[in-house]
């Protein structure tokens, strides 16, 4: 059977750097098929995806993926550990994937795997050092780095901890170790501007002869700057947007010029979040019951967020030196989407992903689908209507949560654009 590579991604939105990773994975590993496990309508930053998942599936297939599966929402919007563990679980249980490819700033597996081994073992000295650093008021990433240094991590490992893609790569490697997966790990060195860089190109660079890959953050910022109309209108990139289009694979340009894309901004969540929070307070529902909300953070939310404000303003109202913007955004999103800690704990105990939902594939990937159907240890869901008869009661709970999250997103689209999208039970699989 041909070699199969898996990629866990958000494609929020899909850009030249994503296409580069797919191409390099094929070139360097000899993989014939690429299976993408993609976040649905909400992403790990604690925000709605900029485009609805059906459009991002189309982008992924046009950009080089052969099969796109959905990472269930509780993992897609979880911590880096839950995000990586959910994606690795899904790929591992397919039984056919040979390797997992991910991007990293360092481009080397050794320091990433070295850090992953330290974290996967959870030794008492490390746990004690971590707790001590957290008591000092450090953020979790800072405390973890300090604890690893105290436990003897070398300089190459400590340097790897300073970059966001390296950190996620470490989580992938850790998940592979903990789940006992035989899948190999493979990393593609990240090229272009930094993960958080919001420029479309660096000074003195760019042009067809020397492409510079912008970050997804930069693309989202540029798109949002074009979508401030009231009433809102679909995104249409016509003449004058060459700098933005240059960061997108040419085969995706028709999507951006046809008026079919409907960008959603994080602040589109404002009304529903304010309602959810006030309802919880009114009904005396403990906020610490929601995933990633500690008792201390719950207290700050009650103190700072009872006045209706934009979603981004609510995050800033809660933010402190100890709580990063992304951590708070993710916690507030869990409240908005009713993702509870007791449910997350059950999903983890059960091995994370208990099914694989097919969102789209290429016709040329028919042999890949046949192989996965033969080897998969979890049900493959092609039609949403089949879930009721294919899934266990426990898996159905995860499924229901995922469907709920997508319908919340559809509500955001309807609120902003007055356009009603097909619900999850009427969504066809995309076949190219």
Q: Can you describe what's shown?
A:
The protein has 432 residues and is α/β, with parallel strands linked by helices. The chain is 49% helix and 10% strand. It contains 20 helices and ten strands. The chain is globular and about 55 Å long. The model is unreliable at 202-210 (pLDDT under 50).
Question: SSE layout and pairings?
Answer:
Elements: E1 4-9, H1 16-29, E2 33-39, E3 42-43, E4 47-48, H2 53-62, E5 67-71, H3 73-76, H4 80-94, E6 99-104, H5 109-121, H6 124-135, H7 140-150, H8 155-160, H9 164-178, E7 184-189, H10 216-225, H11 242-245, H12 253-257, H13 270-282, H14 295-304, H15 311-318, H16 325-336, H17 341-349, E8 356-361, H18 366-375, E9 380-381, H19 387-390, H20 393-417, E10 430-431
Parallel strand pairs: 1-2, 1-6, 2-5, 6-7, 8-9, 8-10
Antiparallel strand pairs: 3-4, 5-8
């Amino acid at each position: 059977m041909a070699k199969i590579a898996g990629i866990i991604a958000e494609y929020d939105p899909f850009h030249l750097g994503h296409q580069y990773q797919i191409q390099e994975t094929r070139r360097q590993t000899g993989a014939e098929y690429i299976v993408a496990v993609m976040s649905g309508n909400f992403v790990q930053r604690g925000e709605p995806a900029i485009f609805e998942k059906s459009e991002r599936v189309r982008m992924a297939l046009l950009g080089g993926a052969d099969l796109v599966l959905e990472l269930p929402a509780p993992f897609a919007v979880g911590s880096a550990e839950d995000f990586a563990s959910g994606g690795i679980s899904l790929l591992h249980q397919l039984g056919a994937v040979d390797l997992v490819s991910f991007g990293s700033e360092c481009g080397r597996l050794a320091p990433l795997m070295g850090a992953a081994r330290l974290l996967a073992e959870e030794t008492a000295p490390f746990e004690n050092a971590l707790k001590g650093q957290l008591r000092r008021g450090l953020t979790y990433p800072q405390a973890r780095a300090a604890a690893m240094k105290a436990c003897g991590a070398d300089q190459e490992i400590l340097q790897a901890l300073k970059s966001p893609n390296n950190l996620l790569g470490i989580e992938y490697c850790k998940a592979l170790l903990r789940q006992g997966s035989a899948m190999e790990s493979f990393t593609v060195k990240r090229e272009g501007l930094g993960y958080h860089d919001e420029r479309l190109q660096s000074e003195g660079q760019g042009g067809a002869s020397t492409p510079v890959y912008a970050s997804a953050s930069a693309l989202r910022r540029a798109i949002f700057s074009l979508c401030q109309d009231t009433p809102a209108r679909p995104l249409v990139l016509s003449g004058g947007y060459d700098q933005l289009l240059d960061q997108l694979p040419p085969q995706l340009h028709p999507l951006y010029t046809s008026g079919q894309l409907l960008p959603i901004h994080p602040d589109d969540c404002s009304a529903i979040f304010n309602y959810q929070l006030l309802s919880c307070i009114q009904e005396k529902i403990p906020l610490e019951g929601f995933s990633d909300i500690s008792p201390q953070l719950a207290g700050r939310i009650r103190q700072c967020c009872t006045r209706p404000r934009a979603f981004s303003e609510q995050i800033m109202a809660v933010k402190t030196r100890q709580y990063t913007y992304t951590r708070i955004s993710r916690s507030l999103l869990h409240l908005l989407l009713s993702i509870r800690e007791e449910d997350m704990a059950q999903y983890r105990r059960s091995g994370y992903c208990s099914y694989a939902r097919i969102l789209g594939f290429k016709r040329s990937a028919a042999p890949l689908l046949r192989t996965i159907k033969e080897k998969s240890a979890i049900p493959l869901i092609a039609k949403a209507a089949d879930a009721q008869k294919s899934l266990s009661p426990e898996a159905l709970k995860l499924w229901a949560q995922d469907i709920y999250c997508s319908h919340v997103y559809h509500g955001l689209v309807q609120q902003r654009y007055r356009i009603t999208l097909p619900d999850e039970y009427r969504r066809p699989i995309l076949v190219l």
